[in-house]
Amino acid sequence: MAVLASEFFGWSVGQPLMQCPIESHRGRDMAVASWWGESLLEAGSDRYPWVISRTGEARSELRSAVAGLSRALGDHGIGRGSTVMLRMRPSLTYVRVLVALWSRGAQVVLVDFRSTPAEYGPPTELLRPQFVIDSDHATAPAAGLAEEVEFRVRRAESGRPAASADCLVQFSSGSTGRPKVIGRTPESLLAELGRHADLGELPGAGEPFLLLNSIVHTMGLVSGVLHALHVGATVVLPPTPTPGDVLRLAQETGAVAIYGVPAHYELLTRTTDVPALPALRLGLTGGERLPIEVYEEFHRRYGIRLSQVYGVTETGLLAAGLSGPRPPVLGTIVPGVEAKVVGEELYVRLDRSPYPLGDQPDRYVDGWLRTYDRFAADETTGELSILGRLDSLVTIGGLKVDLTEVESVLRAHPRVSDTVVVHHEVIEAYVGGESAPTASELIAWCRDRLSPIKIPKRFLVARELPRNKTGKLVRDRNAIRSALRPDSEESASDQQG
After folding, report:
1. N or C: which terminus of the chain has fewer CB atoms within 10 Å of its end residue's CB?
2. Are strands 168-171 and 181-184 parallel, antiparallel or unpaired?
């Protein structure tokens, strides 16, 4: 077991790093006596750390750290109804600051530390948070987790207090275009945590699990960190995300589960040194469709059938197949969720709109959230099979073409690792691979497997395709073309035949 963290933590408010002693959460002048997530800090036993990274931290230490930070944030005027933009590198400091803000009754706007001002500027200008908490990102590595980071608190003079009951505001991944502004209430988050707790296959009290998802986004934050706090489990956060370090930590901690996205599991299937992992019983993946070849190779190497979960930022977890059904079968709607499939599109029942700006009238109608995700539902078992996005179904020459079918055919090529197919006047295919085939080879491959109307007319081949900050492939055509600069391309072809 890792050594527990020291009794000091670092924090900074617009000045160099300071060392500040931790005080008990039951100590003096706590500004907010109770808050919606207070039970998360009380759950679990100090016999097991709530987190393990380079070191571990006991729940009592987390409570004390949150209490000290809450007082410091209160000194800056942050309290109930305050709006705060939080843009920090993923770290244990980040978790403590986020929970401390919630303990003060603040509405927190989460921004990925890798986002540029051009990305987060427009939506945050609409929200106008009163405070900004950020850290220096200039020297931050592209991946991995820090334990302690410096941060500063700044007041925005033109900011305004919360206009909704949301405690958490996030931006959607933006993989298909402009990100949406999404709000979650305390009731929404607690209901999602209850759905997680009701799934007995997920890690429970005292059980460690390895989390590869970013803790800035929904699966890493709610399914990972908050679930661990809620049930008394231990979340293991690798300081570095290399396959060797991930597997070493899984073995050393006796992890019962690994959480990640398909790209993580693809990397784990490439490593040649696979240690014995007798405690491992679950591999959880979400964010995008799981390629069948990754599913099968992971099972062959590790003896675990990967289990897909599905959710959207607006509501969190919606469906799961924790027995590891073979893709494209996903699983069933989890208890506590009311959903329906209409014309292959999944709708979810919500009591209120999750869009605080009121700018998505086509997505929330008469109490139903449109997911724009396509599923086939088995009338007997209720199992859902993933078909793709609603915008992946296009009409060409009067005939329906499912672009995900074209992607599957291209991905089956032994030298293709990633592919995105879009429709822009004609079908376009963006193909990634370290030694990816040429456009001419791909055309020949498709001719043997697809009808002529489904064969892409334009191909762009590169070493790798761009992904967003959650690990999903970017599907916005303009963003893909902007990211694939000439020096990253192996070949490109424009086929008009």
Report:
1. C
2. antiparallel
Give the range among 259-263, 271-275, 417-421, 481-485 with minimum mean pLDDT: 481-485
- Flag whether the pTM goes above 0.85: no
Q: Which two tokens stand for residue 245?
A: 């370090």
Four-way CATH pick for 189-391: 3.40.50.11260, 3.40.50.12780, 3.10.20.310, 2.40.180.10: 3.40.50.12780
| All structural domains of the chain with their residue ranges | 8-184, 189-391, 397-494
Whole-angstrom Cα distance, residue 84 to residue 98?
Answer: 10
Burial letters 193-230, b for 16+ CB under 10 A, else e: bebbeeeeebbeeebbbbbbbbbbbbbbbbbbbbbbbb
Q: For the domain made up of 397-494, give the CATH fold.
A: GMP Synthetase; Chain A, domain 3 (3.30.300)
| Chain mean position to CA 104 | 25
Query: Number of C-alpha atoms within 13 angstroms, CB side, residue 326?
Result: 4
pLDDT tens-place string over residues 343-398: 999 999 999 999 999 888 889 999 999 998 999 999 999 999 998 888 787 878 66
